[in-house]
Amino acid sequence: QVQLVESGGGSVQTGGSLRLSCETSGSISEINTMEWYRQAPGRQRELVARITGAGSTNYGDSAKGRFTISRDSAKNSVYLQMNALVPEDSGVYYCRANVRSVVTSWGVYWGQGTQVTVSS
């Protein structure tokens, strides 16, 4: 089976930084697009950042200029560097990946999330 595990969340003050990591495991043949989403209480889950297998990136409006997504293809991992954090960035951050496994071919997988709390 394929698993995604996020780490790096925590509590910081406004203006601080965090670096989130998403590590994959299992019988993985290939990973294409990898993404970070976040969800705050009472709000819809929203796309924060996306990186394709070719390295192209896209960001949600609130993340542009402050967040950077990157990946390590050799490790099948994706990262999110978050700078100049504000309270509105608080929420559970989820890793999502389009994965080809030996058993099931292509499919979408989610991690269980990591909490980010930004206080003023």
How is this structure best described in words?
It is a single chain. The chain is mainly β and 120 residues long. Strands 2, 4, 5, 6, 9, 10 and 11 form a seven-stranded mixed sheet that branches. β7 and β8 form a beta hairpin. The protein is elongated, with a radius of gyration of 14 Å. The termini are far apart. The mean pLDDT is 96.
Name some characteristics of this structure.
120 residues; 0% helix; four-stranded antiparallel sheet; mainly beta
What is the element layout, followed by pairings?
Blueprint: E1 3-7, E2 10-13, E3 18-25, E4 28-39, E5 46-51, E6 57-59, E7 67-72, E8 77-82, E9 91-101, E10 105-110, E11 114-119
Parallel strand pairs: 2-11
Antiparallel strand pairs: 1-3, 3-8, 4-5, 4-9, 5-6, 7-8, 9-10, 9-11
Q: What is the radius of gyration computed over CA atoms, rounded to a whole number of angstroms?
A: 14 Å
The number of helical runs is 0
- Main sheet? 7 strands, mixed
Structural class: mainly beta
